[in-house]
Amino acid sequence: xxxxxxxxxxxxxxxxxxxxxxxxxxxxxxxxxxxxxxxxxxxxxxxxxxxxxxxxxxxxxxxxxxxxxxxxxxxxxxxxxxxxxxxxxxxxxxxxxxxxxxxxxxxxxxxxxxxxxxxxxxxxxxxxxxxxxxxxxxxxxxxxxxxxxxxxxxxxxxxxxxxxxxxxxxxxxxxxxxxxxxxxxxxxxxxxxxxxxxxxxxxxxxxxxxxxxxxxxxxxxxxxxxxxxxxxxxxxxxxxxxxxxxxxxxxxxxxxxxxxxxxxxxxxxxxxxxxxxxxxxxxxxxxxxxxxxxxxxxxxxxxxxxxxxxxxxxxxxxxxxxxxxxxxxxxxxxxxxxxxxxxxxxxxxxxxxxxxxxxxxxxxxxxxxxxxxxxxxxxxxxx
Amino acid sequence: xxxxxxxxxxxxxxxxxxxxxxxxxxxxxxxxxxxxxxxxxxxxxxxxxxxxxxxxxxxxxxxxxxxxxxxxxxxxxxxxxxxxxxxxxxxxxxxxxxxxxxxxxxxxxxxxxxxxxxxxxxxxxxxx
Lengths: 383, 128
Description:
The complex is a heterodimer of chains A (about 375) and B (about 130). Chain A is of the alpha/beta class.
């Protein structure tokens, strides 16, 4: 398969989008990523978006941006969709369907007054069996955490280390919503929202957006930006298995190994990891399933600063992640890829830049780990 | 569309809701492969045969996982997954739960009217 490259990446700086429409946020993000790549809207021949984009599939946004493309994809797996789009864009580029693919995300749940993500009442066969119990998103991930604690002895203090690491990184990000460095005690002493999860186990609710531009090798080599190649990708859906429920293993156990196999490397080769962090437990389960540690050993793996850049073995979410920086549209997959690209280019903040970062992983968990979720893993290499 | 409407057009599981309205819990089981499943489908998710029968459940099970929300001066709110004696694990709530409600606790089914018209299975502790 011929290679595809991420040549443009842009994170919208706003965290509260008063007076800016979702469509405009998408287009401003697109403009930022295209400018970053050294390309224009006229160069775009492929477009990718998910459910945050207003309208049915890509049609409304293509009209709003007045784009004329001949390849599109609106696969929606919640917050992980944008990592799926990276993989699908690479496939489209490899098969000659397009040569400059634009991927956008945007939303403004904060300006719209949403305090936390709610489960929509969709006419799906599962809804009548879940909606009557009105599980909040925090309660659902709380059940994942409770089961992980029960099976493996994971502690609230170990989960707290994930937030601590994110906060260490966010202090250097001028756009981050939560820049204060917190301690394990701060996290476990913050109010219980849905036990065992505390307020500081949760991500922020923020507005904003992001965009990526992926190109063919020939376009990539014509541009002045560092070459960030998609080296491997995997995607999988996890669900309740018709009642044979396993809350402690996610579909990352499928998407991760597939991505590593395609890349021909192992978790030990990864210098930096962006791990979807809707909640601390989301990170813990993903790290185990991706193979960074054994199943059940995630608590010990994340403890004592092991995820902090410059201190630990696996620097993660050096922008502060969803836990401290940004979770635009309640979908954190886009920002995971963007920070991985920054690290590979050597453009992360100097305080958190991983030296010689040539191999990075980005992983998304969309939907809900406690019901059904889409996992997507990408492995990126700087040439 | 409210919850009752949603349940009414989800023809696969109508017997489940009709039983719940009478205070009975039923489990969907495939008569071809003998596997029970949840939520109920018209097609067996294991062997894909369209041979589903609804059988009375014992109404007993144990808590697989839970999330506990404490609001001052209100009963504990406990969202949970309960593993039924018949095998499948289902989302539910634990009602009248004590402070020390925990994974592994034995539970027994009860029913609550939902404001949108369904009668829904919930569980309460059954520690004897």
